[in-house]
Specification:
The protein is an all-alpha fold. The protein has a domain of about 35 residues. The protein is built from 3 helices and no strands. The longest helix is centred in the middle third of the chain and has 10 residues.
């Protein structure tokens, strides 16, 4: 009665930016820190260089 979904197993997990690019470094965390500074242009590139 409480759930509107018929089957929870059919739900697809969303892919993170790290897994899309094939990196192990957290792209989202780097992007957050870059956004607070003035270098928010290329977090995926920076993570690839760091890795």
């Amino acid at each position: 009665m409480g759930s509107h979904r018929k089957n929870d197993k059919t739900r697809v997990k969303s892919k993170t930016r790290s897994t899309r690019v094939g990196l192990h470094f957290p792209v989202r965390r780097v992007h957050r820190h870059l956004r607070n500074s003035k270098h928010a242009n290329a977090p995926v590139y920076l993570v690839a260089v760091l890795q």
